[in-house]
Amino acid sequence: LSLFQVLPDYLKALLGVVPQGKPSDQHMQQIARLAALQHRAKDAIYLPTLREVQECVPSQFYSKQGSQQWLNVVTQHMQYVQPLNPYQARAQFLGLVSAFPMFGSSFFYIQSLSSSSIQAPCILAVNLNGLHFLNKDTHDAMVRFPLKEVQSTRTQRPTSGSSYPYVEIMIGDLLNQRITQLQLEQGLELCRVIAMHMENMLSFREKRLTLPPSEITLL
């Protein structure tokens, strides 16, 4: 994944949980470092302005501290990232955000769904670990379905009086299956992303099965 693919999701704070109150000092330092790395990745050698700092910090965090305070902390981190070239700054940024829980996910905004255990509207993050339904404000995971439990997905035309198509996802094993209906704008894209991850999971499993026994233990 490149910086340009990851950055929009990072700036919407989709890769981790948004704290309800003030972020901890450790969290603030991490966000300041990531802001400094973004600034350096643009090959900027001068110190960032208030506006530039604001553009490099997810708005959900930015609003929890004063602008001047953010500028001060990011400026402190600039001295550490200054020796890096833009390529190194991009690599370091990606290295840090790759540890975030939802790194590498595709995100979908779900308008409504048929499951009473999941509050909607919400955000659905799809990655190799499965389908994660996140609270739309805090991005806390409410419910997770492992990829191996997804039996099938299909799109349905919008019902009369409704503007969005549905996606039906069958979840469970052969003995216990349930269908969850999701209403969202990017239904076809959601089915495509789930299919891609399932294909990767199956091909990885096949590779493991075809390796000699000594190799399997190493995995």
Characterization of this structure:
The protein is an alpha+beta fold and 219 residues long. Helix content is 43%, strand content 21%. It is built from eight helices and eight strands; from the N terminus they run ααααααββββββββαα. The protein has helices at residues 3-11, 25-41, 50-56, 59-62, 67-81, 86-97, 187-210, 213-218, and strands spanning 106-110, 112-113, 122-127, 130-135, 141-145, 150-156, 166-172, 177-183. A four-stranded antiparallel beta sheet has the order 1-3-4-5. Strands 2-8-7-6 form a four-stranded antiparallel beta sheet, with helices on one face. α2 packs across α5 (67-81) and α2 (25-41) runs antiparallel to α6 (86-97). The longest helix has 24 residues, at 187-210.
Level of helix content? 40-55%
In total, the number of strands is 8
Strand content: 15-25%
Unreliable residue runs:
none
Quaternary structure: single chain
Shape label? elongated
**C-alpha-based Rg, rounded:** 21 Å
Summarize the structure.
InterPro entries: FERM_2, FERM_central, FERM_domain, MyoXV_FERM_C, PH-like_dom_sf, Unconventional_Myosin_ATPase. The protein has 219 residues and is of the alpha+beta class. It has eight helices and eight strands.
Write the layout of secondary structure elements.
Blueprint: H1 3-11, H2 25-41, H3 50-56, H4 59-62, H5 67-81, H6 86-97, E1 106-110, E2 112-113, E3 122-127, E4 130-135, E5 141-145, E6 150-156, E7 166-172, E8 177-183, H7 187-210, H8 213-218
Antiparallel strand pairs: 1-3, 2-8, 3-4, 4-5, 6-7, 7-8
Helix pairs in contact: 2-5, 2-6
Protein name: Unconventional myosin-XV
Organism: Ameca splendens
Domain FERM: 1-219
